[in-house]
Design brief:
There is one protein chain. The chain is mainly beta. About 10% of the residues lie in helices and about 35% in strands.
């Protein structure tokens, strides 16, 4: 993401006492967990080739892990991380060889109620054997389920200072990072994470960091790096993430939930079948970030809610990714897609409520072709906000059926602005604007090299149904810009 961002410093209040009360409630029975998460029903026959373990908070009473009643004990950071690290990477028991564990894919991990503390990925590197006994990674085909997002929490208990672990990312000296769930291999596809809360624990870790001379934390939730995709993140809460290192240098922007591939020469279609749904993200600790990001991949991002983050949704090198039926509330940007080659992205039926800077931002260096931006609602409540911003090189897009509405105090706000953000960026052209509802008090701006006459306008009107003078019907060639085919919904 290339647009400059100021650190987003608002802490959003969270009803911690209510959340704690939920976690301390009567433990969930095995039958109740099985009803909400079928994979964790002990009587359910697993898919061929899969294994299953149960982990609970048992205060030192360790079991076999074969049932909820005989679960493995994960009541400390060291115990919880060792269990998962052994299954992900293999571990040997010198005293009892039969207790040694081989690296295992296709593993169902069922977490009982309560708060499990972890170092997360900590110092692990992709496709490199873990050198320390800190943290864990997740393997190919893993399915990690809690007992419900209001009953199971996985909380980050430590960060990795940049001075430790060899600093392969060349982070600033007085900074530190942490991510809870992260894959261990570029072959680690078909991962599922569901039915839990991920607490990145920013308030506590910030206080600890300050004592250790660390002034910038980036804390993230889920990083699924894979060349093959078919990942599914659903029914998850994320709280207390942070992206402060990005305020030092934007190249360190945070991506709290991130599905991506870095395989050289690959296409987004190679990393397909990804779904992110029913995720709620709040209580952000500040700093540049995109809360839910997709890169070099294809899939669906649907029915999620992001509250108070810098950017709600975005990515780069995207094929026909569908962002639909999501909410972005009090974000700086609702959506931002501003680099490299993107073709056929769908942004449809989303609600962007009270953005502080922009609703939807598309364009910049790179290519942005055949976008469908349709039936979204953007509610603007403050001066200077821009609803839809095209920053150059946006071509053959369809912008239709959107509602860009001004509330009180939306003075000098802009519904649509077209321009080229960088010298040499091409104009936004051959785009179709049809049937949009735009408040009459909002401005519409086209700045050279982008020109109105290079686009098509039909049936746009204000909140009272009157034709828009600034978007009067005009046909440049044809208003039948091809609509990109939607990626087929993944069935679960």
């Amino acid at each position: 993401m290339n647009l400059p961002l100021q650190e987003f410093g608002k802490d959003i209040a969270l009803p911690l006492l209510f959340f704690a009360a939920m976690l301390l409630a009567t433990p969930m029975s095995a039958a109740t967990q099985a009803a909400s998460v079928p994979d964790c029903n002990p009587s359910k026959k697993l898919d061929r080739g899969f294994s299953r373990i149960f982990i609970a908070l048992r205060n030192g009473r360790d079991g076999s892990g074969r049932s909820p009643e005989d679960a493995l004990d994960g009541n400390t950071v060291e115990k919880f991380d060792r269990i998962l690290r052994c299954y992900a990477e293999g571990c040997k028991d010198a005293n009892t060889p039969r207790k040694s564990i081989s690296r295992l894919g296709n593993l169902v991990v069922c977490l009982g109620p309560g708060t499990f503390q972890t170092k997360g990925a900590y110092d692990a590197l992709i496709d490199v054997p873990h050198k320390s006994e800190n943290g864990f990674t997740i393997g190919k085909g893993w399915r990690i389920h809690g007992s419900g997002r209001d009953k199971t929490a996985v909380q980050l208990a430590a960060y990795l200072p940049a001075r430790d672990g060899g600093n392969p990312q060349h982070l600033p000296e007085a900074s530190a990072t942490g991510v809870v769930f992260s894959t261990n291999s570029d072959d680690a596809s078909d991962v599922e994470i569901s039915d839990l809360t991920i607490d990145d624990n920013y308030p506590a870790l910030k206080a600890q960091a300050a004592k250790n001379g660390i002034n910038a934390l980036t804390l993230e939730a889920i990083h699924l790096r894979s060349d093959r995709g078919h990942n599914w993140i659903h029914d998850v809460n994320v709280i207390h993430a942070a992206g402060q290192i990005g305020a030092i240098n934007i190249k360190y922007e945070a991506f709290p939930i991130f599905v991506y591939s870095v395989k050289a020469g690959s296409k987004p279609q190679d990393n397909s079948g990804n779904v992110i749904e029913r995720v709620s993200m709040s209580a952000y600790g500040g700093g540049p970030c995109t809360a839910i990001a997709v890169a070099n991949a294809v899939g669906e991002v649907r029915n999620n809610r992001v509250d108070g983050y810098a950017i709600g949704y975005g990515g780069w090198v995207m094929g026909q990714v569908r962002f639909h039926d999501n909410m972005a509330v009090n974000t700086e940007y609702g959506f931002n897609i501003d680099s490299l080659a993107n073709d056929g992205v769908v942004i449809e039926k989303n609600q962007i409520i009270h953005p502080t800077k922009y609703g939807i931002v598309i364009g910049g260096p790179g290519t942005y072709s055949n976008f469908l931006i349709q039936n979204n609602t953007i509610q603007i409540d403050r001066p200077g906000v821009i609803g839809v911003l095209f920053r150059g090189n946006v071509t053959n897009a369809t912008v239709s059926g959107n509602r860009i509405l001004a509330e009180d105090f939306a003075l000098l706000a802009t519904a649509i602005r077209n321009y080229s953000g960088e010298p040499g960026d091409g104009p936004n052209r051959n785009n179709s604007y049809q049937g949009n509802t735009i408040s009459s008090r909002l401005r519409i701006v086209f700045k050279k090299p982008s020109r109105k006459e290079d686009n098509c306008f039909a049936g746009n009107h204000d909140e009272n149904g009157h034709p828009l003078r600034d978007l009067a019907d005009y046909q440049a060639g044809s208003c039948s810009t091809a609509t990109p085919a939607s990626s087929a919904p993944r069935q679960h």
